[in-house]
Amino acid sequence: MKTFRTDTYGGIDSLILQHAEPPGALAAGQVRVGMRAASLNYRDLMALAGQLRGPKEGLIALSDGAGEVLEVAPDVTHIAVGDRVALTFNTGWLGGPWRPDPTCLTTRCCPLQGVMQEQMVVQHSELVLLPEQLSFAEGACLPCAGVTAWHALCGERPLLPGMVVLLQGAGGVATLGLQLAKLFGARVIMISSSDERCQRLRALGADETINYKTVPEWQAAVRDLTGGRGVDLAIDLGGAETIDRSIAATAMGGRLAPVGLVTGWPNTVSSIFTASVDITPVRVGSRDDFQNLLRAMAFHGVQPVIDRHFSFEQLPEALRYLESGKHFGKIVIDF
Ligand SMILES: NC(=O)c1ccc[n+]([C@@H]2O[C@H](COP(=O)([O-])OP(=O)(O)OC[C@H]3O[C@@H](n4cnc5c(N)ncnc54)[C@H](OP(=O)(O)O)[C@@H]3O)[C@@H](O)[C@H]2O)c1
């Protein structure tokens, strides 16, 4: 079977397409999945560049995928051959609050192997069933980006209708966050790098948008839009260049969910000491979060925004496109 891996953690250029034996016979509780689609996340670039804790022997790329069940162990009763499934991101976090427990850190594509392999054998608990409304490609968009957006919106302190949410950029987490925040009846303010992208975000449902290139003090603009009050929830995806501004844009008593590091690790977050906001870091989410997300998307007919599809062999090209930041929504690999 085909796999895409790095042995040297030298970034995109170190990826090699390799043929490997398919995984062997199933053990108790296991399921064999024929992979059909994968999606890219910003963290894949970090994983391949050795910026995350990866296995010494090298890493199979990408964390998010979906496929078709090819075989189940005799003791697995709730999943059948032919079922359409997606793989969970935090393989050991089934539900409830996140715990500082090593089993919660078993994430696919650092430290576990990723999904760029034509067949995978996993524990049945690492799978969720895809609703018929979602294709393999759409299901593959959700394990990291979708569950992260969902958990940030409703994992710690659920949104109420009319609350104001701030989201950043037009990548995977941001576009899914927008679509999901609208399900909660929220008012969504977004910042993005161009007027054209802002216009596309409004077409997708954003209530107000700010071009952060032409309005670098966008936190003040967010305050103005909310009558000086600030937002109820700021989902920070930028990191270094955005986190202090996100805090400044959040209402007293509101919530900051630090999620991303697109512009690097913050050096100082001194504003944390002066802001009266709750800070709830996000570590993607649990399998329960994923199942709740799928039920909501199926009922409300929400489909992830897919910018482009690439073939398996085009993974390096797809990652370079992700790196360029020009995508709007998700990038998918079709197997
Ligand atoms: N903690 C967690 O559990 C968790 C889970 C998932 C993802 N993440 C992190 O969340 C971040 C986003 O992930 P993703 O997969 O959605 O990334 P992505 O699809 O690559 O999107 C990144 C987007 O960020 C925007 N951006 C770039 N510079 C910005 C700036 N200065 N201010 C605001 N926005 C900026 C760009 O959109 P525009 O050009 O439209 O501005 C870009 O397309 C990454 O850092 C990722 O590692 C964390």
Structure description:
The chain contains ten helices and 16 strands. The chain is of the alpha/beta class and 335 residues long. The protein folds into two domains: 2-146 and 285-334, Quinone Oxidoreductase, Chain A, domain 1 (Alpha-Beta Complex), CATH 3.90.180; 157-279, 3-Layer(aba) Sandwich (Rossmann fold). The strands form three sheets. Strands 3, 5, 6, 7, 8, 15 and 16 form a seven-stranded mixed beta sheet that branches. A six-stranded parallel beta sheet has the order 11-10-9-12-13-14, sandwiched between helices. Strands 2-1-4 form a three-stranded antiparallel beta sheet, with no helix packed on it. Helix 4 links the parallel strand 9 (164-168) and strand 10 (187-192). Helix 3 (142-154) packs across helix 4 (172-183). The chain is globular, with a radius of gyration of 20 Å. The mean pLDDT is 95. Residues 41-43, 144-145, 148, 168-174, 191-193, 197, 212, 237-238, 241-242, 259-263, 282-284, 322, 325 line the site of NADP nicotinamide-adenine-dinucleotide phosphate (NAP).
Query: Distance N terminus to C terminus?
Result: 11 Å
Which structural class do you get from the secondary structure elements? alpha/beta
Major β-sheet annotation: 7 strands, mixed
Taken from the alpha-carbon principal axes, the silhouette is: globular
Named CATH topology of the largest domain:
Quinone Oxidoreductase, Chain A, domain 1
CATH class membership of the largest domain: Alpha Beta
